[in-house]
Amino acid sequence: MMQESGTETKSNGSAIQNGSSGGNHLLECGSLREGRSNGETPAVDVGTADLAHVQQQQQALQVARQLLLQQQQQQQVSGLKSPKRNDKQPALQVPVSVAMMTPQVITPQQMQQILQQQVLSPQQLQVLLQQQQALMLQQQQLQEFYKKQQEQLQLQLLQQQHAGKQPKEQQQVATQQLAFQQQLLQMQQLQQQHLLSLQRQGLLTIQPGQPTLPLQPLTQGMIPTELQQLWKEVTSAHTTEETTGNNHSSLDLTTTCVSSSAPSKTSLIMNPHASTNGQLSVHTPKRESLSHEEHPHSHPLYGHGVCKWPGCEAVCEDFQSFLKHLNSEHALDDRSTAQCRVQMQVVQQLELQLAKDKERLQAMMTHLHVKSTEPKAAPQPLNLVSSVTLSKSASEASPQSLPHTPTTPTAPITPVTQGPSVITTTSMHTVGPIRRRYSDKYNVPISSADIAQNQEFYKNAEVRPPFTYASLIRQAILESPEKQLTLNEIYNWFTRMFAYFRRNAATWKGAIRTNLSLHKCFIRVEDEFGSFWTVDDEEFKRGRHIQRGRPRKYCPDENFDELVAHNPSLIKNMQTSHAYCTPLNAALQASMAENSIPLYTTASMGNPTLGGLASAIREELNGAMEHTNSNESDSSPGRSPLQAVHPVHVKEEPLDPEEAEGPLSLVTTANHSPDFDHDRDYEDEPVNEDME
DNA sequence: GGCTATCTAAACACTT
DNA sequence: GAAGTGTTTAGATAGC
């Protein structure tokens, strides 16, 4: 221990600069020292100019300390060495900073001498006091120097504030200042402890006429490592003292260092306000001690009969045994110190992580808030990267709720009810039926990336995806290799991709079926193996629905022949499902349409089964019924894509460009009235009441 | 407040 | 007949 002290003294400058070299007895102090001695806090970076300035000041301080050290050593050589000390500490060297920080100008070594010798002769005490007085003058000079330093620092801070420097730099400077203040307070506290200790031992008496020991003006000359050293010296002194039954304040000191430094560091990093009063390191020990007295069994290191010291987990039957265990097994030694250091680092890392996450969250919220006020120029329907719930108005193309970070499947999303840029993180549990509109005018397809980016999240979290059923169905279909899925496959896709759809199957399955039927973009196709669904993306973007109240597409068999008789052209729509659904066949249809090839030709080109044929006929009949009765030309959503027919080669009237875009506009409907409006949809045309 | 989109539930019909 | 599938309607809700 003392060798470490000596090592530190030898490499004084470097030891001060490098908090990990020697003074590792007390960790929090070491951490603080690192921040301070390097002119930066562990959490933030200081500006280069600030850092250089602080370092210059520190170098000047070190020079002064070395001068002081030399003087002290001379004093020690002059006759205050005790035989005991020489035995135990052959190379005793006083940490310079310790000498500086003790207002009594009694170095720990000297104090230890006193403690070890127990009795000093009056002559020795007189010499000691004289030396103290001489040193005190130098101490006061150094204190003034420190004061000037602080003033300069404050001036810098003010200048930076006035110069409008970035808040981060301000915060860093403020953090530095807080660190200084904190160290000052710690030092003052230790001073008092130290003084009381000496007074109790009767080894130091403050004479009324004697220059007042400067309890207060010890400025920022304290370095945590020095505090550690002093603490250790004092503690060891008290340990010696225990033999005389005069046991006091050792635990308090330990508590002081451990409990005050870590939280104070926390406050420096996370909550500057918490330390602005500079009090936290002062009263914490007593408070904690009181807390433990009031709640004797609520020690942070004790719970469920187990010692919570990291890596310990020793079973303690009661709190008293725990205290014994704590004092015996986790006393102040290198091991405990190292463990404490590790724990501090863990806490630091967690705090840093928390700070970063908070900052990220803030940036996200800020970003989304700004975004919500932006014009809806470019709909980004499902920008899930932001991973924050936002209202629909936050992005017109965005759904109302977005999940939290995809990396945290348990993170809730928030279904925001209303209001722009409302971002909360607490209301996921109220996920319910929410509107998920992409646009009033058209649907903006979600991309695979939209879902893929949050795939794991939705797979694991029972969070309702912020997509409409239609969008999800479309996505499911488009993700399939054949761009077609059976209903059951759609179900499976939903359950596979979204944990939310692994319950209440009846509800969402019904919704899927409803949407499949309701949206014109979904096209049901039959083949010999059954029926499957495809999607017409253009129609999807139009977002049109089948109008309510329109007659059912399904046509009972008993009406089939009659309907065929009334609609002979329906046979043209007896294409195979394959011919329609695959992109290849769609292209083929387009090509044929361009060349005015009647679509029924495709039927002959395909390989329709009788079942498929009948189904196609039946479906087409339904569409024909609609046409017949309501004079509608638009596609019957029905399902055979050919129901969404437009007379391509028959009609000479121009087609609605929109309608002509898609493959659905390719089918001939020779029997249609030439004057019907192709642009009209079910939505546009009232349903023929006769049909009903 | 009206309109629209969406969701949900339900009824009904057909198919397997 | 049961289950699955498909269609349609009505009501509720939320956003525009």
Automatic annotation (TrEMBL):
Major location category of this protein: nucleus
SMART domains the UniProt entry points to: FH
GO biological processes: DNA damage response; endothelial cell activation; macrophage activation; monocyte activation; negative regulation of androgen receptor signaling pathway; negative regulation of B cell apoptotic process; negative regulation of gene expression; osteoclast development
One example GO MF annotation: DNA-binding transcription repressor activity, RNA polymerase II-specific
Cellular compartments per GO CC: nucleus
Compositional bias annotation for Low complexity: 403-417
Key words of the record: DNA-binding, Metal-binding, Nucleus, Repressor, Transcription, Transcription regulation, Zinc, Zinc-finger
Comp. bias (Acidic residues): 682-692
The organism's place on the tree of life at top rank: Eukaryota
Polar residues bias locations: 1-19, 268-282, 389-402, 627-638
Positions of the DNA-binding region: 464-550
InterPro entries with a match to the protein in the record: Fork_head_dom, FOXP, FOXP-CC, WH-like_DNA-bd_sf, WH_DNA-bd_sf
Location of region: Disordered: 1-44, 268-297, 389-421, 626-692
Pfam families xref list: Forkhead, FOXP-CC
Stretches with biased composition (Basic and acidic residues): 285-297
All residue ranges annotated as the Fork-head domain in the record: 464-550
Compartments it resides in: Nucleus
Protein name: Forkhead box P1
Organism the protein comes from: Moschus moschiferus
